[in-house]
Amino acid sequence: MRRTAAILIKSLHTLVDFVIISVIIILVLLAAFTSWETGRIYRESDAVKLASYKPETENDLSFGELQTINEDVMAWLTVYGTPIDYPVVQAENNDKYINQDIFGSFSLTGALFLDYNNSPDFTDFNNIIFGHHMEKEMMFGNLDEFRDKKYFDSHATGNLYANGKNYGIKAFAWLDVDAYDPNIYNTRIDAEADRQIVLDLLKEKSTVFKEGVASTSDRILLLSTCGTDTTNERYILAAVITDETYSNPYPETDEPERSLTGQGGFLEEHGRCINLLFLLILALIAYIIYRSMKRKRKKAEEGTENEKA
């Protein structure tokens, strides 16, 4: 009877050993996959990578080739001195590019897309481009920085390429609004009185506002992304679309600004490897502790058996 019980206990210990080791291996593999997948998502959506398709630049690839790959591509948006330097798509609805990149692959970063109700030639009064608020300033991940007036003033211009032509964009407001605001998120505004209502609302709800930039005769461009505090919170950078283009005030590098943890920084290049190494070390420590406890338990069992003998 005692021998049978001992065998059962030993079998149970073996099973527990197997489960613990399996869990450690699974956790390490899961951490490695998560790290790799996160890196892949950001690499695939990096503005620097997509820059090879940017129109009117000396690249091996062209904007036309990108449109051949995806006929939904219809514009290119650049906000000078920021990581916002991406192609813009428009689909038959506003859901398609939430989790799909411009190449048609699944991606949590999605793509920048013009509201499907807007005219693709940006002739509407209120034109809305949506993008995810991603980490590492991907997509519209840095729009919240415009709430700082100093940053706003120094990054207020950009370029919109559409219909084979360059247009200037000049920011005039930064807002924190509700996603279901029926007036601001309205693409069907024609009457001048209605246009003035929208401009008044943009000013009323703004945290930063520049007088004398936007009027009812202008075309408005709203860059919209999710806020970080509530589900329905949205950050908006409002700008006017102008026939006058603006020179890039950051011509030295002609590259988006990057933080220490952004693309090109040491932590970005090596951070995932460091995190994975840290997880492996933790797993090794956990295994060593477990083996130590197992040896102590085995010695205790052997001592008990000797006493019984």
In short:
It is built from 6 helices and 9 strands, in the order αααββββαββαβββα. It has helices at 2-44, 47-50, 63-69, 149-154, 192-205, 266-308; strands at residues 73-79, 85-89, 112-114, 126-130, 157-162, 165-178, 206-209, 219-226, 233-242. Strands 1-2-3-4-8-9-6-5 form an 8-stranded mixed barrel.
Describe the overall structure.
The chain is an alpha+beta fold. The chain folds into two domains: about 1-40 and about 265-309; about 50-240, Sortase (Sortase, Chain: A, Beta Barrel). About 40% of the residues lie in helices and about 20% in strands. The chain has six helices and nine strands, in the order αααββββαββαβββα. It has helices at about 1-45, 45-50, 65-70, 150-155, 190-205, 265-309; strands at about 75-80, 85-90, 110-115, 125-130, 155-160, 165-180, 205-210, 220-225, 235-240. The chain has an eight-stranded mixed β-barrel. Strand 1 and strand 2 (about 85-90) form a beta hairpin. Helix 1 runs antiparallel to helix 6 (about 265-309). The protein is elongated and about 95 Å long. Mean pLDDT is about 80; it is low at about 35-40 and about 255-270.
